[in-house]
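=== Structure Prediction Worksheet ===
Name of assembly: unnamed complex
Input type: mixed (protein and possibly other molecules)
Chain count: two
Listed entries:
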Amino acid sequence: MSDLRELYQDVILEHSKAPRNYRQLATANHKAEGYNPLCGDHFTLYLDLKGDSIHDISFQGSGCAISKASASMMTQSVKGKTREEAGKLFEQFHKLVTGQANGNQADLGKLAVFSGVSQFPVRVKCATLAWHTLQAAMEGKQEPVSTE
Amino acid sequence: MTAVANRIPRELRSPRVRGAGFDVEKVRHDFPILREKVRGRTLVYLDNAATSQKPQVVIDAISRHYERGNANIHRGVHFLSEHATEEHEAARGTVQSFLNAEEASEIIFVRGATEAINLVAQTYGRTQVGPGDEVLITAMEHHSNIVPWQILCEQKGGRLRVVPINESGELLLEEFQKLLNTRTKIVAVTQVSNALGTINPVRRIIEMAHRENIPVLVDGAQAVPHLKVDVQALDCDFYVFSGHKLYGPTGIGVLYGKSALLDAMPPYQGGGDMISSVTFEKTIYNKLPYKFEAGTPHVAGAIGLGAAIDYVNGLGMDNVAAYEHEVLTYATEAVAAIPGIRLIGTAREKAGVLSFLLGSIHPHDIGTILDQEGIAIRAGHHCAQPIMQRFGIAATARASFGLYNTKEEVDALVEGIQKVREVFA
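=== Predicted Assembly ===
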């Protein structure tokens, strides 16, 4: 049960039930779809990029608790950041959920609650789906992002 | 054991002995993997619709072939080649009896149900389906009984038509009747749905199609582990199944076809073994079944499948079906009683499968939490995305049962689901 509690931390469960920034964004100038064909997770990410910085961000869609909480907390974390800063954050987040954290993850802040994912390799895709979608939206990709 | 105990009928001696002549505890001893610990817990394997576990006799038959009997077949003049050929062909005979096919040459060994359907689509289908012609499938097919027909329809300008299902996951036979027409060249239908567990009335479906002179392919991948099948009684034109869902090895499966149809079909793949003579000008194809078995076949797989069929025959398919029905009924009632559960697939006739949703909890979260308890289920769309679309859902959690599962394991599943509710409380 301890591994489970590590994975499904209260913050994660709370975000999955009441995701933040869960709406369409009227001012969005970038948009991307993220899809995990294996489990059917499907999100649309909306971005309002002002110059190089993420002025506003939101998402909608359906998925498991991990993917939804990750999307919700990601939108909170990257709002107001530059593209480069968001990219760096993803790098750190990716290391965290794949068990490669080297103690240099101070910038992650609240996102550290996802460390338990590293004990569940098949769930890494759930945790990173929103981040891959963000990357696609920032790069202006037209093709939906797939984790497969 | 005392003399008194010996006089008590077996099935009354222990609550674990259920059904006439079916002793599940004894059966469980035949499957070594069931003694494995998973995450420190006794494995509760409820993913049988994906693949089944293998009894020791199957594992032994495969080992014995490689240890003592391995050689290529149908070509050597030496002792081992003759021996391996005999074993391979004996397995064909075992499959023939199992399906009650009229002739052994109507049994084609393939990689699995998927390859069998592709074979029929690309041989029978390609010669019979032309522009504007129709292939009729149902809304509850596995991707393997959808995509090969889509490919065929794209190649030939044909049209794929789909028989709808009701909210319980039962086929609408009146709609099926309406969809049958002079352009329908083949009907392809699953006998048991892998995502819903529905048992389709294939005998009736075949009758209805035959009235319009339309041949029928039955996908038996989910049926053969649970039901006695008689292809002559069904009068189906093609029947396909995979060995690995029937307690046999992966990589071996069966296409049954009526010999008149198989004879008229062009070969599927070219190569060795499927020819009787080759010159650069012309090749004469081998007779059935070899015409459809190009290349060195999966000899060990066929032998393993034969051993698996011998094993289930030893238990008796009727006993297996009766016992499994009891476990599925027990599981359905127990799981349905959990608050927040929605069953997907509530047909009157079902086998092997219990698909469900729990509140708004995603099936993957259910699967992860059950896995921590050593319980293996499947979470996802089960390679049947159109069914998920039909029910307006992305995925389900699916517990699927085999002949070795017990009511105690169902209790473990129910406890596990309660744990899921606690985590998400």
